[in-house]
Every structure is written in C-alpha cells, then in structure tokens.
Amino acid sequence: MTTQQLRDAFCGFFNDRGHITRPSAPLVLRDDPSSFFTSAGMQPYLKAFRGDEAAPAPRVVSVQKCCRTGDIENVGFYNRYHTFFEMLGNFSFGDYFKEGAIDFAWEFVTDVLKLDREVIWVTVFESDDEAEELWHKRIGVPMSRIVRMGRKDNWWPQVRWEGPCGPCTELHIDLGPEYGCEGGCDFGCDCDRYMELWNLVFQQYTEATDGALTPLPAPGIDTGMGLERLALLMQGVRYNMETDELRQIMDAAIGAIGATTAAVTPYGQEKQIDIAYRVIADHLRATAFLLADNVVPSNEGAGYVMRRFIRRAYRFGRTAGAREPFLYKALPAVAQAMGAAYPELVGKEDFSARIVEREERRFADTLEQGMDLFEEIAEDLAKAGATVIPGERAFKLADTYGFPYELTAELARERGLTIDEPSYAAALAEQRQRSRGEAVGLQLHANGSLAQALPASEFTGYETLAEEATVVGIVVDNELVDDAGEGQQVGIVLSATAFYAERGGQVGDSGRIELTNGEVIVERAMPLGESILHTGTVSRGTVSLGDAAVAQVDVPRRQAIRRNHTATHLLQAALRELLGEHVAQSGSLVAPDRLRFDFTHHEAPGAEALRQVEDRVNEWILADQEVVSREMPIAEAKAAGAIALFGEKYGDTVRTVQVPKVSFELCGGTHCDRTGEIGAFRIIAESSIAAGTRRIEAVTGMGAVERARRQDELLAQVGGALNCTPEELPGRVEALQKRINELQAEVKAAKQMSAALNLDDIVGQAVEVSGVKLVAASIPGADRDMIATIADEVAGRLGSGVAVIGTALDDGKVALVCKVSDDIVKRGGHAGNIIKQVAAACGGGGGGRPNFAQAGGTQPEKLEEALAAAADVLAGQLKA
Q1: Which parts of 802-856 fold into alpha helices (H)?
Q2: pLDDT tens digits for range 195-223
Q3: What stretches of 392-509 adopt beta strand conformation (E)?
Q4: 506 close to 585: Cβ distance less than 8 angstroms
Q5: Which of 434-438, 462-466, 561-565, 846-850 has the weakest average pLDDT?
C-alpha cells in the first residue's frame, strides 16, 4: 500500500464507523506559548477533552501534521525518529471508550492491513486490569504477548500536567530477528525489532502537580499511529526513509548533491553516507512544511527551528560530498511527493526554494569559518589532554561567529567531547541581561482569572458607532472594583459596545463613555477573554457598576482605520496578482495614520513592481466598488475561495469581507462600505524584516495627500540649498556625487602611491625566524584596505614567508593584517593565531584563517611593541 492509500484506508475505515474526518490543524501554533508546533494528533482537541469547548463531533478521525525536535540527533540513525511526521488518529469525545477503541484498532490492523496476529504484541498500563482483560478475553491476544508497563511507557503524557491524561495501551509489531540485536533480544529492547505502531490513550483525568487526578467531564479516546512507521511495515522496507514518498524526496536530494560534485555515493553502499541521506530527506520535508505554514528562517521561535533544519541538512550534505548549496534544488520534490495530500505545498515551490538557497549560501560562509575555529578548539583540548569545551568558547562561536550551539554540540559528540553547559548558560544569561529591555504596557491579557470573572460583551460596531449599554465590570490596578473616581485609570466592560477591540492587526477604537454621573475618555479598546475592555481615564465624576452608559466611538479615527483596513485587503490582492499566488500575509498593523502589511516573498519587489502595485490599488479605489461583509459557514467560505490567515483559528461560522472579483478574505475587522471611500493609496516604505518576509507601509485618504505635500516641501528646500528647481535636482545631485567619487579616488590613489614608494624598504626589513622570512612593519597614514593590499604585495615579494602589517588609524585605533604563505602554514604557521597575540599586545583582538587574518587594537602607542612580538609568536608555531 502506498502512503496515500494508507491515509485513505485509515480515514475511510473510521468514516464507515461514524467518524467525521477533520483536516489537519496548522503545524505552527500561533496561540500556544508552551509550544512552537503541533506535536501530537490530539493537540487540536485539548479544550474539547477538557470540556472547555464543544467537540466537533462525538467521533473524529484525522491525519495530523506534527513536528518534534527533542530527538533530532537520532533522526536518520533509528526508524522511530522524525522531526516532521504524520499522525493517524481516531478520537471519541464521551462516546466509545476502552472496549470500542480496542475493537476498532484490532479490526483495522488485522482485517484491513492484514497483519499477522502472531507478530502483534500489546502493552497496557501496570494497573489497567480492564484493558488487559479486553485484549486477552475479548480479542484473544495470548497473555504471553501482553506486557504490563509503568508510567514511562503506558501513561500519556509522562509528565504531570493539568491537561487531559490517562493510561494507554499500545500495539507493537515484531519485525523479526534480522531487525534485532546480534545474538537475539526480547520485547522491550531499544533496538528496531519491536516497533511501536499504535498508541490508544484513555483520556480520563487531569493531573495536578502533586499527582492528584480529577476525572474529565466525560472520558474520551485519543489514538496516534505514526504514518511513516505504518508505511515501512506495509511496504516491507528497512528504514522509514525508504518508503515511497520519503524515498522520492531522498532520491531528489541525492541527485541534487550529485549535481555539485564529480561523484556521488549511491544510497545503500556506505553506512555513514546513508545516514546523511536520511537526515537530509527528513529535514527537507520538515522545512518544506514549515515554509508552507509561512515560517521563514530567523533567530527565534519556529523560524529558528527551521534554520536549524536547513543548516543541519546542509552539513550532512557536505558529509555526503556536496560542494555547494543543494537543498533548494531538491525542495520541490516534497510538493511533488506529498502535494496531493497537502495542497498548501503546491504553488510555493519557487518561493520556498529561494528562501532555502539564501539560507544555505549564508550558512556556507559561517560553516567554513566556524569549522576552522572548532578545529582550533579541538586541537587545544587535545594538547591539554582535556575533553570538555569551555562554555565561554562555545558561546563565542555562537554569539560572535554565528556558529549554532547545537552544531558545536553535535561536532563535539562526534569527537568524544562535551561542552561545559553551566558556563555556556552563564555566558548566555549575561549577554541576554545586557540586551534586555524593560517591558511596559498593560498586562491584563496574562490575568486569566480576571478574564473569566468578567461577563461577555456584545459587539455592535459593524452597524453603529454609538451604543447604549450598562456598566458590567470595572477594573482598577488589575482588580475588579465596584466604582472609580475622577482621574483614575480604569478598564470598563459594557454589556454592549460599538468599540472594536484590538485584534487581527487592527488597533482598538478610542472615544468616550457618557455615564449617569460622569465620563470616561477611552484611549484603547482591547479584548479580555470574551469581554471588550475600554481602557482610559475617568475625566469627570464617577463610574459605578450598573451605571447606564452611552459609548461613542471617535468617528473620524474609526473612518481612517476603516480606510486603511480595506486598503490592506486591496494591497494583498494586488501583490498576489502582480508578484504571485505564493504571497501570503504574515502580519499586519491597521492604524488610523498608516497601514503595515508583512508578506512572504523571496526578494525586494523593486521600484517598478511597487509602482504597479500602487497603481492597481488606486484603480480599484477609483472604481468605487462595493465592499460586502457577511457571515457564512467556514467550509462554504473556503470553498468559495476566501483567503484565511494561515495558522489562525476560526470557528464554524466566519465573517467574510469581499470586493467582488478583487478580494475575498476571512476578516473580523471594520471596513469601508465602498472602495472609493479610501480616497487614495500611497506606498511610503518597503523593506525586509526577515529572510523571505517583506514589509510594506502605506497611507490612505488625507494621509496620502499630506505625504505628497511634505515631499513637495522637502524638494523645494533641497532645490533652494542647491540653487536649482526640483526638476533639476537629479542632474545636480548626480554631478555632485560624481565629483565626490573623483575626489575620493584621488585621495586613495595618493595614499597607495605614497605607501608603494617605500615597498622595497619594507621588504628589506625582513628578518629570519627559524629559517622563515618575517616582515613586521607599521605603515603611517594607511587605512585598513591599504594595509591588506600591502600585506599581499609583501607576501608576494617574499615568495615564502610571513607578513604582519599594522597602522595607527585616524580614529585612535590600530588595524593589523597577517599573511602567511601556504608552505609556512604546512610547517605550523597560522595567521589567525599570530594576529590574535600581536593584537593583544596593543589592546585588541582578532583572528582568522591560517593563511590570512585581520585584527584591531585600541593602543596605537604600543603598535611597534606589538609588531616586535610577532617573531616570538611565529617561532613558537613553527614545526621542526
């Protein structure tokens, strides 16, 4: 059975038994601070198991995208580990329980998959007599193949938490002695012989930190079967990566590596190379799915994890013979292999490949420099007879040179070394303390108990800008109170309000609340649970619970926000039309004075493309088209082509905003009634905010008019300063720039000529150190570029030798360069180590490669003394 046939067979089996198929939840979690990714099939249903929200149906089946990184070092070495994987699961919410779950599981594996009953082993929780009895007496599994196990193996999850939990039972498959240890082994061995296939969790409790169990409102079933393991079993291959879809991805990666080198080792010929291929295929698949979820490489969160996947795969590619970036060439194979099951992969291949190529090329430079520095650390440890890398040196590799800590740790393991983790953590904490800023702002979002204590607010702001209501909640200093007086900062909750609460990128409304005995000036409306909190100041009188109130939105401000929000939708439509369908929103800000739109794209659009985007939006504005807002079932909206913000959670009924034949999106914000109300649209900035993510800032309405006026004024001022009209400015500026370049070239040429006149004298200063010619000289009046050129010239004239050149700069600092010829490098000469010690003698530091290095210092008065030290440093390096 192919992998796709297995997906279909699993869902079809449970559909026939009353389960509805639910689509996979997003891979990247947007609203769960405890985890970056969906890591289990039941994760989307946590609230349903807890009873906090209604289950989508009594019986559900799904194929869930998952990502875990805790065992990344084992990927490729063992069958049971992946970063990205698919989890087949069936769920019961207060419907069937242990008996039903066990019956379904046994029927599927024996009747549908036709697995041999004699190779199936079962584990149950150590005190679960009921499950054991069901397996033995009802199903007929002999007691010799039923094993009781403890919490580590048969309780989900292993750690105590206040989420759904309970005992579980697992189905294991005996793959045969050829998968086991030499000399044989028994069930429970860590080898690949006994493969865990399917975990059936009996969700019965929540568990306190002290171990106390509280029954859930209704017991449920949560099962998980790894699709990759099932495919391995059904396709009769040795490794998961050899199954049909993953093999297609792996073969594409091998082909991409082969395109970079004269010879590539085929899969199946060399163990270490095979491991590298399996790691690459796994990480390629994970990267493609993260990119499809609009993640881009970054230094934090999900973006950092993806960066780690790319870099780790690239390094294993080097092990397999790759001589240049190759991952980006193989990436489209993921969509080819899995696009039918996951259409979000399709159409983004070019964009995704460009992102990966950029990351590969950036890491290639880091890897080369970092490997040199790691080798230096390893050599130092070997000389000292030590095996522990100082944490400070590992931190410097990461912080100064961008060499990831995880890569240092992995390389260390390969050499039998470890890292002093406490000292690394101390260095990291110190760096974070230096860079940490103070967080400011209202912290009400973090107060869950406060949110639960406040009643829900009815939002009427789509239809009106003023609403009569009753005060049903007052918050002062993060506490509920009965009343507040003049001058106090407050949060007011009303039974109904026209104020839009800040969400989805749109800022909250401001305005005022007229009360029975006072007034509140509202600075910001924000969500708090199901309530809308109006934060501001009591400007006169008092506010008390039960007061009658009239909440009036600041109308001009709301209208400006509406213009910018509708313009944001038109902007996304124009970008998708002109740049490609891969463009997707990855963030936004809709404020009264401007809009900001973040979107996925692999390169700067360019001035002409931005002009076309701006023109397209203004054409739609001038067309004065109707903006239609209405609610509909989410399935109907998506079927009609509505664009959803990927990763956002939506209910079964959603609000859609449509400009016919232009834009159709799921959106809860406030909008114009017609596009003509926007007035005008002007892009004011475009920039990169991360690899593969661009940002456009724009203004509309009077903001666009004011922008044009300011630019006219600036042009007039510059023209006045240069004594020309605005129309003449380009020519005048070009002439000035040309003259500046000429003068700079003249100055540089004069300096280089002056230095060159004394080059013979400089070479003549060479001394011999253990038979090696050394020139250590200072060049007055030179700059950094000049001494690098001089070092090359001196080294060239020496033919074989070492050149150390320094200069005192105009800013009171020192610049140093060292060049070592290749034959001297073989004798032990190392430019990076020479320059490091020379620079230290004049208050600085630096380093570099064995044949070339640069450094700086802060004490120019010690330059000559520092250069004099070069001879002793070189003598200590040279081999006999």
Answers
A1: 822-826, 831-840
A2: 999 999 999 988 887 788 888 888 999 99
A3: 418-419, 458-459, 466-476, 479-480, 483-485, 489-494, 496-497
A4: no
A5: 434-438
